[in-house]
From TrEMBL, chains A, B:
Keywords: Hydrolase. GO terms for molecular function: hydrolase activity. This is Zn-dependent hydrolase. Belongs to the peptidase M20 family. It comes from Paracraurococcus lichenis.
Length: 406, 406
């Protein structure tokens, strides 16, 4: 069995890096803090005798050899980057649990048939450069590498510059290599498992999404002198589009998701009618057909609002992601492990995007969810119980071992 | 007559300090750039033999002695601070025209009966610390000095720290002293004079205003996993309040003003339902009774929106300013000067706030407006004609001279 205390201690050790006063973590991708997290992770891996390689987008692969040189590796992992005000477990759980799997294999002196590789994917969160699942997306060939290198954060720093600055622009190509399977353990980040008293979510797939960048252009004008008829207020238009996003979400019932999470006003001065507003928009739904409908309707309806107010809207679709079902045989290994361990479990569709979604395009993939308190994530108050982490890690261990030795 | 070319050259010289690529000015109050503007102004004044004193809130007074030691000074001036993306003339025109008045008096060898004092008021714009007309407001006793010292910008720098850092926390008390009159020349910042082909606005007073700080508190949550029923989205609520402000403005017709100019989202990440939004709100109207009604209705209606969405609103009223009529005899001096010079002129109520509004509480006051292109201000494209500046400055010269020699 895996060591629950050792797992928890390493989780807490990783959570020190980028710790926030409110008990969360700020470890934005490709920052100096991310580098510290990566370095600590690399040190742990090397202490176990694993060989660490880094690819051109900074994805880290820590390899443990198997007995049969002909066998393809079994992958497991997640991400160490966080939201600007994120929690300790989103991403880190899957990586550190993977480390615990490796430690347990060492402790038990097990040599698996297939090699095992533990992955830390770059920039899963997408909050800095605007593309979630960036590292796995570049690896999977969804995001062309030269395009990804050119993406900028709000300060104009490119991915290429940031990778180089922290010394994690690796020599290995960022592209899919043959692998036997990929397993990712993650907190659910939603309320379902907790509400039903389940310990394990057997993730059957992930929902569809579409993300946009929006820019509304009005005209800077004096707030005291400019009469209503002369105003071209970019923020009033943005406000109506935010309301539209919320309404379009709600017409899809409890399965709908529609969010404006990021917004910047220019010039952002109290007594100036705003001349420009830049904001993000995203929709999600388990059914890709709904996303296709939203992607047809939203740009048209938003443009109508903007044009009616003489404040034109420029909308850029960043990516559109179909729903991704996971591999039946891998999902089954998760189901069997939970059953063998007597852990209450249910099937679940992921509301969040995960690196597993892109990996699944070329590698048989499954995910394991564990509950989190009040379903809260992307929040510094994100919290889980040590026993929940341990149970999830044990399921991960058994699924990986079963696959590597099949 | 005043020297229009010298006036324009000095305006352009001041506009170099904080010049922006788009042809505007960013000379935010109490910054290093503001210090450079103040130093250049002080140098010009001292070169004319004026005595410059600075008060405890950084207001600068450049004095030219008169013949009669018993006479109270006639004040003139405006402000050198700007919006974050402001124009070259908002404020600067009144100060530099005041300088040109002093230069002309020197050139002509005129000694006025009363002394004349040229003022550069601190932080007229209010965009950095949230209180427009801050320097004149502190001087007039409207803003208690210790409260003003404690005001913070978004980075947490206090007024006290900023004043000290640029060396403009002066030794003279910031409180009203007896003065005979105050004259302020300013661009209209609106479209009326230009539309009617007028050269001079005889400003009879300024409209009423109320300003607020608003904070909506929701809960950070994952954009992909959090169902509509569980969301407490602070930005959706803020958006509805922005729409409310716009609607409340429009029910007042063309005289209404309602603006949300500044807004910050937390944590401001694309895939996080926003947990907090902070924004400014202001209303203006020529009739104070309308402002009183808005100040009664808006907090109640906004709170209803916020409470209905389980995202409570904390609203702080920053200030409420009645309409301010100017002094009939001072206004008359402006009217007479324009008539004597044969300049097309009309009476006008100021849509913007001006230091003159607070000065008028203890000193007989009048203002002179000149047109600006397309009525545009608080915009880097703000523009005026040299001839318009010259005409306004000549009216200022004659009004001040008439008052000082009466
Ligand atoms: N797991 C997770 O929070 N991923 C961030 C990308 C997303 O928004 O789904
Ligand atoms: N004149 C001017 O733009 N003043 C700024 C204060 C206001 O918003 O009215």
């Amino acid at each position: 069995r895996i060591d629950g205390k050792r797992l928890w201690d390493s989780l807490m050790s990783m959570a020190e890096i980028g710790a926030t006063p409110k008990g969360g973590v700020k470890r934005l991708t490709l920052t100096e803090v991310d580098r510290q997290g990566r370095d600590r992770f690399r040190g742990w891996c090397e202490a176990l005798g694993l060989t660490v390689r880094v690819d051109a987008i900074g994805n880290m692969f820590a390899r443990r050899e198997g007995r049969d040189p002909a066998r393809l590796p079994v992958l497991l992992g997640s991400h160490l980057d966080s939201q600007p005000s994120g929690g300790k477990f989103d991403g880190a759980l899957g990586v550190i649990a993977g480390l615990e799997v490796m430690r347990t294999l060492n402790d038990l002196g097990i040599t698996t048939e297939a090699p095992i590789e533990l992955v830390n994917w770059t920039d899963e969160e997408g909050s800095r450069f605007g593309h979630s699942l960036m590292g796995s997306g570049a690896w999977a060939g969804v995001y062309p590498l030269d395009k990804v290198y050119g993406l900028q954060d709000v300060e104009g720093v490119t991915v290429d510059q940031a990778l180089t600055a922290i010394g994690y622009k690796g020599e290995h190509p960022a592209k899919p290599f043959p692998a036997d399977a990929y397993f990712e353990l993650h907190i659910e980040q939603g309320p379902i498992l907790e509400r039903e008293g389940q310990q394990i979510g057997i993730v059957t797939g992930a929902q569809a999404q579409v993300w946009y960048d929006a820019v509304v252009t009005g005209q800077d004008a004096h707030a005291g002198t400019t009469p209503p008829s002369a105003r071209r207020d970019a923020l009033v238009t943005a406000a109506r589009i935010i309301d539209l996003v919320d309404r379009m979400m709600r017409t899809r019932g409890e399965d709908g998701r529609g969010t404006v999470g990021q917004l910047h006003v220019l010039p952002n001065s109290r007594n100036v009618v705003p001349g420009e507003v830049r904001f993000s928009v995203e929709f999600r739904h388990p059914d890709f057909a709904e996303i296709e409908r939203l992607a047809a309707d939203f740009p048209r309806e938003a443009a109508a609002i903007a044009d009616g107010a003489r404040t034109p809207l420029a909308l850029t679709e960043l990516f559109r992601l179909p729903a991704q079902p996971f591999d039946a045989s891998c999902v089954d290994l998760v189901r069997q492990a939970a059953a063998r361990l007597g852990l209450p479990a249910r099937e679940i569709v992921s509301g969040a995007g995960h690196d597993a979604v892109y990996v699944a395009r070329s590698v048989p993939t499954a995910m394991i969810f564990t509950p989190c308190k009040d379903g809260l994530s992307h929040n510094e108050a994100e919290s889980i119980e040590p026993g929940e982490a341990e149970a999830g890690c044990q399921v991960l261990f058994e699924a990986v071992l079963a696959r590597a030795n099949r």
